[in-house]
Specification:
It is a single chain. By secondary structure, the protein is α+β, with helices and mostly antiparallel strands. It has three domains: 23-237 and 402-452, BirA Bifunctional Protein, domain 2; 253-380, YbaK/aminoacyl-tRNA synthetase-associated domain (YbaK protein), CATH 3.90.960; 470-569, Rossmann fold. The mean pLDDT is 92. It binds one RNA strand through strand 8, strand 16, strand 21, strand 24 and helix 12.
Length: 571
RNA sequence: CGGGGAGUAGCGCAGCCUGGUAGCGCACCUGCCUUGGGAGCAGGGGGUCGCAAGUUCGAAUCUUGUCUCCCCGACCA
């Protein structure tokens, strides 16, 4: 492709509304443009990368035995009402009506639609296992879209759904997808980890997320340094350390702590480590106040708590709600004589002689102890694990914290949707059975964005070759020099003939402009043709990822580029 | 939805407090010049100041309403 006949609107200045590198660079490199909040135009360069990821995904899905279909983006309300998600999904589901006032929504995912296909067409156990997938535009009316393609409202997703006669079959399907995903992200040149995850609103009973490691990631993940345990913090179990402290209970003491509300302030003021304090939070679980006790330095895991309480909605109580529920002032809450349900984290069970609020403004209690000073009815794992915690799976392992971007998610669904939509089949004995399902998603645009998060420098993007918009950029330094342009034309043609995807920068621009643009858009291989070296019959090859510039004869350059491309695509 | 901020040329911003001429840098167009890391000179085009109502002789500027966007929290590929 000749640059002068293409469309790559690069910009020098970073648009003010971009926050993370991938978003900034995709805008600057002319890959995407925003149309509305969380809704983007894909310009040629961006689209090429997206198509590359799609091809890799398609190849690996097909290799794993999945079959491509395409479902509609606009889907009828009835299907969603059958699964009850019409009510459950909330505002993220963008609902609309047609001219006859029939209700529809833009598909945020397609369990209902695909299950509808299967319940109509699949009658016999002989038709399974079956795995159907599509690569299609989804719409979720996110509360807060951000970070460009990382969290759009409209986004391209590959979603696959497996159908099996029993759980063993479903496990095999899950494992196949898991392995396919590993291959996909490896081929995209990403540093990633598969981690145990919560199932969220999709539901089901088991799932893994594929996380690209990046500091800008929105998810916190932990991994063990001793075994292969890795999990999203939302899901990560904390190791149950049984009542470790048998310290003698000291007499309780009420201390004056004027104006000291936060755990940090109180522990500094009293000179007692935060690990010897217990904090009490109040949550509204389906509008019922519940008090939560955690060690001072621990964070509440709302997902775990939600499961323990079995509630639908969980939010932090407002100051007024707290005052009303406990009768105590915010900042000085304590579990003594609790009026509301009290749930304590497992860690709290082993703690003795702790600092807690005195339920009275400007006072805390020192050396408070369970049973003697307060009564806790329920203990549960309700905290986020922290860096340095012991591994819940092996002995001696320590958990390490990472940030990650979720690019893929595999779920073992079970019968949630097949039961709701009545997707059944007849087994060998002619008995009606419910289909076992799994579902598997990959964010295509997000994968490209995550890749940029992981591969960039001050000058721009450094694309791994398999998903780069072009393999090679050929820059003619002064295209008005006829020898230069004739040589560049020839090399361009030869590389293309060899199957290399070439962007030929034939613009009459100064070299600085061309180099800046080449670096910005991140093409892996750059071949510069300039009068000086051409006098010796040489051209210059430089890899965007670094390394020395190679001065090569034209034939050698063509051969070298061709082999570098083959090598990079060989995985 | 709660909290914070912003809407002025394609992009980045100033002007607003103290009402009267809409401005700068980049980008764009023409010409000259230049060709190894976002050159230089000269000339030029482009803005209902988010929208609506109000105050005023007069509103980008003051008032009210409204919409959109961005950032911080709960959702998710």
């Amino acid at each position: 492709m000749r640059y002068t006949q293409y469309f790559i609107p690069t910009v020098k200045e970073t648009p003010a509304d971009a926050e993370v590198v991938s978003h900034k660079l995709m805008l600057r490199a002319g890959m995407v443009r925003k149309v509305a909040a969380g809704i983007y135009n894909y310009l040629p360069l961006g689209l090429r990368s997206i198509r590359k990821v799609e091809s890799i995904v398609r190849e690996e899905m097909n290799r794993a035995g999945a079959i491509e279909i395409l479902m509609p983006m606009v889907t009828p309300a009835e299907l969603w009402q059958e699964s009850r998600r019409w009510e459950q999904y909330g505002k993220e589901l963008l609902r609309l009506k047609d001219r006859k006032d029939n209700e529809f929504c833009l598909g945020p995912t397609h369990e209902e639609v695909v299950t509808d296909i299967v319940r109509r067409e699949v009658r016999s156990y002989r038709q399974m296992p079956l795995n159907l997938y599509q690569i299609q535009t989804k719409f979720r009316d996110e509360i807060r879209p951000r970070f460009g393609l990382m969290r759009g409202r409209e986004f391209i997703m590959k979603d696959a759904y497996s159908f099996d006669v029993d759980e063993q079959g479903a496990d095999i399907a899950y494992e196949k997808m898991y392995q396919a995903y590993r291959r996909i992200f490896a081929r995209c040149g990403l540093k990633f980890r598969a981690v145990e995850a919560d199932t969220g609103s999709i539901g089901g009973n088991w799932s893994h997320e594929f996380m690209v490691l990046a500091d800008s990631g929105e998810d916190a993940i932990v991994s063990c340094n001793g075994c292969d345990y890795a999990a999203n913090v939302e899901k990560a179990e904390s190791k149950v350390v049984e009542a470790a402290e048998h310290a003698e209970a000291r007499p309780m003491e009420k201390v004056h702590t004027p104006g000291k509300k936060s755990i940090q302030e109180v522990s500094e003021f009293l000179g007692i480590p935060v690990t010897h304090t217990v904090k009490m939070l109040v949550c509204m679980a389906d509008n019922v106040p519940v008090a939560v006790l955690l060690r001072g330095d621990h964070d509440l895991n709302e997902i775990k708590l939600k499961k323990v309480l079995g509630c639908e909605e969980l939010e932090m109580a407002t100051d007024e709600q707290i005052a009303k529920a406990t009768g105590a002032p915010v900042g000085y809450l304590g579990p003594q004589e609790a009026r509301i349900r009290l749930v304590a984290d497992l860690t709290v069970r082993g703690m003795r002689n702790v600092v807690v609020g005195a339920n009275e403004t400007d006072y805390h209690l020192k050396n408070a102890n369970p049973d003697r000073d307060y009564v806790i009815g329920e203990y549960a794992d309700i905290r986020n694990v922290a860096h340095g915690d012991p591994c819940p799976r092996c002995s001696g392992g320590i958990l390490e914290m990472w940030r990650g971007i979720e690019v893929g998610h595999v779920f073992k669904l079970g019968m949630k949707y097949s039961k709701a939509l009545n997707a059944t089949f007849l087994d060998q004995d002619g008995k009606e059975q419910i289909v076992f399902m799994g579902c598997y998603g990959i964010g295509i645009g997000r994968t490209v964005a995550a890749c940029i998060e992981q591969n960039h420098d001050d000058n721009g993007i450094i694309f791994p070759l398999p998903i780069a918009p072009f393999h090679c950029i050929v820059s003619a330094v002064n295209p008005k020099d006829e020898t230069v342009s004739a040589t560049a034309d020839e090399i361009y043609a030869r590389l293309q003939a060899a199957g290399v995807e070439v962007l030929y920068d034939d613009r009459d621009e100064r070299p600085g402009v061309k180099f800046k643009d080449a670096d910005l858009i991140g093409i892996p291989l750059r071949l510069v043709i300039g009068a000086k070296n051409l006098a010796d019959g040489k051209v210059e090859l430089k890899q965007r990822s670094g390394g020395e510039m190679e001065l090569l004869a034209i034939d050698d350059a063509v051969a070298r580029i061709t082999s570098l491309v083959r090598e990079a695509l060989a995985l």
